[in-house]
Amino acid sequence: MTLNSIKKPGNPAPFVDLWPRLISAIILIIAALVTVIMGGKLFVLFWFIAAGAVSWEWQNLISPQRAHLRSALGVFGCALVAWLSWRHDLTGVFVLILFTAALAACLAQKGRRLWAGGGIVYAALLVTGVCLLRLSPNHGLEAIAFLFAIVWGADIFAYFGGRLIGGPKLWPAVSAGKTWSGSIVGLVCGAFCGLLTLRLFDETPYESFPTLLLALSVAVVSQCGDLFESAVKRTFGVKDSSNLIPGHGGVMDRLDAFIFAVIYASLLGFTHSPGSVADGFFFW
How, if at all, do strands 169-171 and 175-179 pair? Predict the structure, then answer.
């Protein structure tokens, strides 16, 4: 008797999609780590490309009408936002995002205008947030590494926790696959992955308990980002934002949690320290 002969129809193996997900994740992680360590223009370029891809996927997802024109506008807008973020011209970033979002809304059909403009804001805030954090005078590398560890840790442990433990669904109306067990395991393990990562930066005097609370808040926000994109895709009746990444779908599918996490971290940091967003994120 073979393994296939005892499988029940409609009950796929729990890790059937593991290998394509794993290979794609390794490639993306290496690229992300290399660019964040090197920093500078290479880092900005990497995240401009990511934000441009997010904008392209979003505009094609919400409506085919003038999608190419709106996508081109989004990519161009993300390029300018990346350049202005590099120069720390936050006034220029704010004005450009509003202008580009309004123009995209005008190009969309009635009923999809808010979606079109919102997609520009969503992608632009990604590249703005990562640039403000990484290019901060102090603790920029630590900030991005901290977010990477939490988001990646939460994703990995939620994947295995949900499949091994199972149980009630987290929000079946939005995401059929996510469970409470996977979400809780991912949240806790992701937060501790962030704390362990900060241990690599011994010169930084992080306080364990406040930083744990910060890590937990980032993990919660990142899971909200995952659910948000699931809700968007369900609204427009698609499974994946695109097929750019084997095992993961599109760039939006891969970055949904990180986008929310980096927007949260950069806004929190800017509120406390506009001159060094990473400092403001860690130290209140």
Answer: antiparallel
